[in-house]
Amino acid sequence: QVQLVGSGGGLVQPGGSLRLSCVASGFSMEDFAIGWFRQAPGKEREGVSCISNGYGSTYYADSVKGRFIISRDNAKKTVYLQMNSLKPEDTAVYSCAAARTLTIVTMKREYDYWGQGTQVTVSS
Asked: Of 101, 118, 103, which Cα lies nearest the Cα of 36?
């Protein structure tokens, strides 16, 4: 059974940090690009970051560039999203997803598997 389990969300003050984890099971994660998306109340789901497997290429949305870092550990079947200098506008439900390709994927429709979300709230 294919599963992506995201965790690590929580409540943090502006300027703080959180690290999200996405653990994969039921498929060969090394053959997939892994992305993180977020959805704030009343807004569409947007792509935040993606990491390929071919050469470990990464993509970041402009809104998080320089603050977030995505990484993967295929041996642990885990992808991480380190989020630093968090802002209130980063508040959203964050979900990870897997696309059967070795390249960067930015379009939601290209993803094959989705995990459940984890809530991130940035507030003082």
From this structure: 118
CA distances from 115 to 2, 5, 31, 102, 118 (A): 10, 5, 17, 19, 9
Main-chain dihedrals φ then ψ at residue 4, nearest 5 degrees: -125, 120
Q: Chunked in runs of 10, what are the mean pLDDT values of the chain (124 residues)?
A: 95 98 94 96 95 88 98 94 98 97 90 96 97
Q: Which residue has the tokens 């200098």?
A: 85
What is the spatial distance between Cα 23 and Cα 115, in angstroms, rounded to a whole number? Answer: 9
- DSSP type of residue 76: G
Report the 10 Å Cβ neighbour count for 37. 23
Nearest-5° Cα angle at 10, 7 to 18: 75
- Torsion angle in degrees (nearest 10) through CA of 57, 69, 44, 98: 50
Phi, psi (rounded to 5 degrees) for 13: -80, 155
Q: How far apart are CA 115 and CA 44, in angstroms?
A: 17
Place of tokens 């470990």: 56
